[in-house]
Specification:
It is a single chain. Helix content is about 25%, strand content about 20%. By secondary structure, it is of the alpha/beta class. The chain has one domain: NAD(P)-binding Rossmann-like Domain (Rossmann fold). It has a five-stranded mixed sheet with strand order 3-2-1-4-5, with helices on both faces. The longest helix has 12 residues. The radius of gyration is 15 Å and the shape is globular. About 25% of the residues have low confidence.
């Protein structure tokens, strides 16, 4: 089985719905496609930058229980305001990035772009089950 590390920019309605859907579909993804997943990065204006290459407890994230994740930027001693997206992605070791922040014209998302998902700059080549 292949496990993908996922990072989410934005953890409001859309980001939380995505995490919930992934949780609901875990067995199907595992059994039918031999795919596993971990959320290893979450970033939003409300919760800041969280990274854990071992993966977060999705139930705790969905419940808003961020106490257990308060020190989860491993190896990064910089204040949140000085982090770059590269620092966060590196700390999370994410292979897939979902950008779920606002795409309103006045905000252009959290980072000045309004794409919905991005893959790792270094493609991870893994066979898909059955191919």
């Amino acid at each position: 089985m292949i496990t993908y590390h996922l990072a989410l920019i934005g953890f409001g309605n859309v980001g939380r719905a995505l995490a919930g859907l992934l949780k609901t579909k875990t067995a199907e993804l595992r059994d039918r496609y031999e795919i596993g997943w971990k959320i290893t990065g979450v970033a939003s204006r409300r919760i800041g930058w969280l990274a854990n290459p071992d993966g977060f407890d999705v139930d705790a994230l969905l419940a808003g229980n961020l106490q257990s994740h308060s020190a989860s930027l491993r190896g990064l001693s910089s204040p949140v305001s000085s982090l770059t997206i590269q620092d966060w992605l590196s700390a999370s070791r994410a292979e897939v990035l979902f950008e779920n922040s606002s795409i309103a014209p006045h905000s252009c998302g959290m980072f000045g772009f309004s794409a919905h998902s991005h893959t790792s700059p270094t493609p991870v080549r893994r066979p898909i089950a059955g191919s």
